[in-house]
Specification:
The chain has 284 residues and is mostly helical. 79% of the residues lie in helices and 0% in strands.
């Protein structure tokens, strides 16, 4: 090997030696990021795990705060507390109506904003994002003022109206994002083949935006069944599941609350798994 070849080989070896610590550092940084991610997930899941665990607590009284043994009794006595059952049914009905109404209205708004340019579209976007970013206590107080001014009796339907008003923006944003990536040439091909406007929407457009519609509608359902602040303003004499739990904290939360929360969480996980599995099959 001549002098030039040695001079060229020397820097290569030195560069290789310098790269190794960098690769090793990147490896450890990646492992640290993975560990940190799992710690965050464990921290977020900890309250849910405690809720699931205390659904099996063999407590002797109404206070479900200390572990006293394992039992499946509360799953058999899930509906033993009548007012708690009524509150859960109210929450499920309100969330279902909110999902349907906000799903339809949000889909139409998202389709209009994602597809067309019209006078007032900028103002509509501003109002929509303002509703998303607005504090719940402000929205609850404003809705209460509106209902009182219009002499609307507070109760079941004022809760439904309020939940639709704050969740429709989330549906519209989700659907709009889906509409903006839809290939318009497919709709034009359907028109060229003789499909009417309604047939094109029903057979072509809606199936393509359905993932966004479904995601937005499920988000509206989750926001509705979870809401406490706005519901507390406009509920009147109607008690929902979150309101019942808040009132029960003064005397003790029964194990049935943990069981109901566990079942709601399990249904949400099941829907997420089915959605992920369906998306994976659709991708293949």
């Amino acid at each position: 090997m001549n002098t030039l070849e040695r001079a060229a080989a020397g820097p290569r070896k030195n560069a290789t030696r310098r790269r190794r610590p960098g690769r090793r550092g990147a490896f450890f940084r990646g492992r640290l990021l993975h560990i940190w991610t799992w710690l965050v997930i464990a921290w977020l899941f900890l309250p849910i795990a405690v809720m699931i665990l205390f659904g099996f607590n063999d407590t002797r009284g109404r206070y479900n705060q200390t572990w006293q043994g394992f039992t499946l009794r509360w799953y058999g006595e899930l509906f033993a507390i009548d007012d708690l059952t009524v509150a859960l049914v109210n929450s499920l009905l309100i969330a279902l109506l909110t999902m349907l109404i906000a799903g339809v209205l949000g889909t139409l708004i998202g389709l209009a904003l994602g597809r067309y340019r019209f006078r007032g579209s900028g103002l509509m976007k501003l109002v929509m994002f303002a509703a998303i970013s607005c504090a719940e206590i402000i929205m609850g107080a404003s809705l209460l003022s509106m209902f009182v001014t219009l002499a609307v009796p507070l109760g079941f339907w004022t809760i439904v109206i309020s939940h639709v008003m704050f969740s429709v923006s989330f549906v519209a944003v989700t659907v709009r994002a889906r509409v903006m990536v839809v290939d318009r040439s497919i709709e034009e091909a359907a028109r060229d083949l003789g499909a009417s406007s309604w047939e094109t929407f029903r057979l072509v457009t809606f199936p393509m935006i359905f993932p966004g519609v479904l995601a937005g509608s499920l988000l509206a359902f989750a926001l509705s069944i979870d809401d406490f602040v706005i519901t507390n303003f406009v509920s009147g004499g109607t008690v929902t599941f979150p309101l019942w739990i808040y009132g029960a904290t003064r005397v003790g939360i029964p194990p049935q609350v943990n069981v109901m929360g566990t079942l709601i969480f399990a249904v949400g996980v099941l829907i997420a798994v089915l959605n992920a599995f369906g998306g994976r099959r659709g991708g293949t």
